[in-house]
Input
Amino acid sequence: MARSGRANGPENAAFNRWFRYPAGFSPEALSATLQAIGNTAGLAVDPFAGVATSAIPLARAGWRFRGIEVHPAIAEIASLKLSRPGDPNELADVARAIAQDAPDGEWSAEHAMIQKSFAPEVLASLVGLRSSIEKGSRKWQLHLKWALLATLRDVAAVKVGWPYQRPDVERQAPHKSPRSRFVERAEQMAHDLALSPEPPDALVSCGDSRDEAVWQRLLGSTLAQACVSSPPYLNNYDYADATRLELYFWKTVGSWAELTTVVRANMVTASTQQTSIAKARDAGNAVAGWGNLGREILLVRDRVSRERRRRARGKEYDSLIPMYFLDLMNVLKNVRAHLEKDGVLAWVVGDSAPYGVLVDTPAFVSRMAEMVGLHAVQDRRLRSRGERWVSNGSRHHRALSERLIVLRG
Output
């Protein structure tokens, strides 16, 4: 999601501000995508639903929405944005009562990363709030859980920003009182829910969008008129790792090994941490069967492989490339099977350049979509990417972009 740093920036807009997850549409990209699918509302699907960034504006425009999100915690907060358990004022009132009455908790048994991330008195307060939420009424429990989880990075005494969490590097916490910030977070949620009191015809299901069975459970025989999404970019970003702070604090997982099996294992392969020699070999063999397109993808892989071997500790971007595109092909097959014959696919996709070798992901994905029965009608550049790394001498200096690709049946 675009980040402006301004109080009225897009990350502080209603619903967006519930949790700052670094994956999703910028307002400009989402607006362009909605224009691309047209004004005829029907059913829209998003196989990479994230925190429901696309769901809410689609619902406002009259669309019904069904999304798939593989990260269990992110699917949970997405579902919360679409639910209406009761009067939002109750949520704010319950949060204030918890903040006032919850005793401090015992923090010495918390995960080592959690202990490193907070001052002892702050962590004691956070643990106490967590315990009170877990013991309280279930009506608003999940909303309160996420009000607290969204508070963590606001009160941490170390660098826990996106994309990397660095618990060994101290910083001044933006907010001093976890109780006050927790209440503010809950009040923001209550305010946003009050803006949209009726539940939209929208839901997000936790599952792997590469799996046909997940689509069947979500849609059955119903066909969608549009598929709107922004798939993970081939940029070595580990979305499971990015949420360690929240997952460890809420005890969703208790170790790195558990995090990789519970969260990361079912994700589209977009980081080198997910690769293996055997899977990369099998993916390469599958991609080789795609004719000219497959040969072009594997030529890019081979160029990246040569560049990697020139480096003493190069990351396995070459293994990643065929695995990534094979995963996206499996998603596209499911999209085509659950999209009306004349339906429209509008995806925002970024290219990449591992070791300076350009991987034109938008063009490759468009051609893959054509292989499953769609035809390309648009490939439009939306913005430049990668400027933040220009001063980093260890990285490539290729100009990168984010593009909108549109295909129709």
